[in-house]
């Protein structure tokens, strides 16, 4: 078994409390997980669970209060800005809203060539690389001269994925990358992520609130609740036979096309919530 590409150990992230003498808010409470080269780890939880904070901490965008983050065996928990910039060729990100993450006044070629130029790639080589990137994400060559507003949401997300791939990273943090897309476009973009991974060997930390999404793409799944990982294991097992009550609630809340099965899930979820409420009152 290969060594982890990313290893998070006992990670605590705190933010200052609001108001005079307010206690700090602890967004992550001793979280540990690892991602192997070429693996997808899905990080799932509801809003406020801490999943996005974990992704931001891996990117150096959230303060590490305690614990460590190791990338390829090196401690990156408290890197200086210059060191973090140097790491950007290894770790990239795809955000939820592709339009807000793309400069609306730049052409697609300019957007994709920018990180290459900053990295010292020649103009000729950058143009060639842009053509390859567009081909990788299934966009036509003439997309180079167009602006982001000329594309659909799914196409813009393909551009964002292409930009993340520009420097050939080994790890991409995907922060709710398909939640703003309709279901059919979601499926196509998820298949694109899988195809790119099979071709390049890139690893993903895939952050989402949707259990069905992580089931489709993840090798392993970590479930977050109130700043802690409450369940972590094989993706198929966690998303189809969850053991923790919180994961079971997520599973029962996920829609299914069969109305009878959907009603059975609603009844089971209601019974689970009633049982938890009774235990809390005892």
From TrEMBL:
It holds the Pfam family oligo_HPY. GO terms for biological process: peptide transport; transmembrane transport. Residues 6-251 form the ABC transporter domain. Keywords: ATP-binding, Hydrolase, Nucleotide-binding, Transport. It comes from the Bacteria. SUPFAM superfamilies: P-loop containing nucleoside triphosphate hydrolases. Its EC number is 3.6.3.-. GO terms for molecular function: ATP binding; ATP hydrolysis activity. PANTHER family: TRANSPORT ATP-BINDING PROTEIN (PTHR43776). Belongs to the ABC transporter superfamily. This is Putative enzyme. It comes from uncultured Microbacterium sp.
């Amino acid at each position: 078994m290969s060594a982890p590409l990313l290893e998070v150990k006992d990670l605590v992230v705190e933010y200052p409390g609001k108001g005079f003498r307010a206690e700090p808010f602890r967004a992550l409470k001793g979280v540990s997980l690892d991602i192997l080269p070429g693996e997808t780890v899905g990080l799932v939880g509801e809003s406020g669970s801490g999943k996005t904070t974990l992704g931001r901490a891996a990117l150096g965008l959230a303060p590490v209060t305690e614990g460590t983050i190791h990338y390829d065996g090196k401690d990156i928990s408290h890197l200086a800005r210059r060191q973090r910039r140097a790491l950007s060729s290894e770790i990239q990100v795809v955000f939820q809203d592709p339009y807000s993450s793309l400069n609306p006044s730049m052409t697609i070629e300019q957007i994709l060539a920018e990180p290459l130029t900053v990295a010292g790639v020649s103009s000729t080589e950058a143009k060639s690389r842009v053509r390859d990137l567009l081909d990788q994400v299934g966009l036509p060559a003439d997309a180079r001269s167009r602006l982001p507003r000329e594309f659909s949401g799914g196409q813009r997300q393909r551009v964002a994925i292409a930009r993340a791939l520009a420097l050939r990273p080994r790890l991409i943090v995907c922060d709710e990358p398909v939640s703003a897309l309709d279901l059919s476009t979601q499926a196509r973009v998820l298949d694109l992520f899988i195809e790119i991974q099979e071709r390049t060997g890139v690893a993903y930390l895939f952050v989402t609130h949707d259990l069905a999404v992580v089931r489709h793409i993840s090798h392993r799944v970590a479930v977050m609740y109130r700043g802690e990982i409450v369940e972590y294991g094989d993706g198929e097992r966690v998303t189809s036979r969850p053991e923790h009550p919180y994961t079971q609630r997520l599973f029962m809340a996920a829609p299914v096309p069969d109305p009878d099965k959907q009603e059975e899930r609603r009844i089971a979820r209601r019974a689970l919530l009633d049982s938890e409420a009774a235990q809390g009152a005892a």
